[in-house]
TrEMBL record:
Gene3D superfamilies: Vaccinia Virus protein VP39. Keywords: Methyltransferase, Transferase. Residues 138-152 have a biased composition (Low complexity). It holds the Pfam family Methyltransf_31. The keyword Methyltransferase applies. It comes from the Eukaryota. One of its GO terms (molecular function) is methyltransferase activity. Residues 138-175, 217-297 are annotated as: Disordered. This is Methyltransferase domain-containing protein 1. The keyword Transferase applies.
Amino acid sequence: MPQCPSHTRQRGKPLQYILGTEFFGDLEIKCAPGALIPRWETASTTSHLATLLASPLNSPVPSLQPHQPSRLEVLDLCTGTGCITLLISHLLSGHRPVHVLGLDISPTAIGLAKENLALHPAGPGSRIHFRLADVLAPSPSSTTASSNPAAALDATPNPAEGSAEASRDDAPPSWRSVLRDYEAESENDRVASREVSGPWRGEWHVLVSNPPYVSPRQYRRTTTRSVRGFEPRSALVPPSRSGQYSLDGTSTSRTGPREGKAGVSDAARVPDGRAQREKAEDEKAAGRAGDEEAEDERTADAFYPALLNVAIETGVKVLLVEVGDAAQASRVVGMVRLTLGEKWRDLRVEVWRDEPSVHQDEGVDGSGGEGEELQGMFVRGRGNVRAVFAWDARRFRSDLDIREASITEP
């Protein structure tokens, strides 16, 4: 085993960066500064998803030929080291052919993912590709953003939209342009190799993502010195983007005080109104704190509306996204209901803990101790809240007990 320089460890450098690898499930994944270190919790939820996808009963796409497993098309957004992509391919290689495309905005991460692909190549009949792309690239027109709630939050202009060649040398291409190029290449490869699995129909089946989801406040207060000092902040904290929109299509940009504050300010100017002034100051302070907390949550959640927009545009029927805690899981479930409820006629949603395959603390109402944050939601597994899993039951069946898993509007 390589020797760890004591001064390096004393500075808090993660052991994974010193050794250069970390296990992710059965795979040893190369790690390097500039890409997030793979976590065992993510490997656990990924493995559970692969178990579901491996079952013939759970296929989100019908078999193209009798007795021949259908090809599964998986999209991995914010792929980082490529660990999720590689583990899904590895676990499903003995069950069905899998094509996985991993996207990330970081050239360092994509380079590392390709190195890991060289160590863990796809199995027979399967393919893995990693591409540079901006997951937060907006819809092609502002009309789409205003009419589609799922596309609304990522509606800020981005010069990367258009062809896969960005308009600036340093701007990554949009995810849409990368998918168009990938789909065209896949069809050309199929024709050239005379594949019998049928033409590429531009149909994706599964979307997975471990996006940046840590709020700026959480990053400052709860992350370790090792994380703050060595792991890329951009892989943990979403960018603060001006001109963002909420899921109901209303702008979240603040150009003035919140509604109702004008009256408070007037009260503060009443002559000899000391009590009123003190009350006004207290209310203003509480208002600022509320604004900051709301903005903090908006930043933490910035990727989820964009991911749901990708899910709608690509037509996937299975979705797994990682979250930071129970409160964020509750917000993401609300987004899923709003954006996918009409698209997926038989929408099912679960909240997964670190170990979703372990039948403990399982049931409705957040029985693991989160209280009201997960009230009415089906929570699966043991450990901390880790992910939100959604699927269209018309196209995908869970072979687990899902008698309580259907999420209905309260």
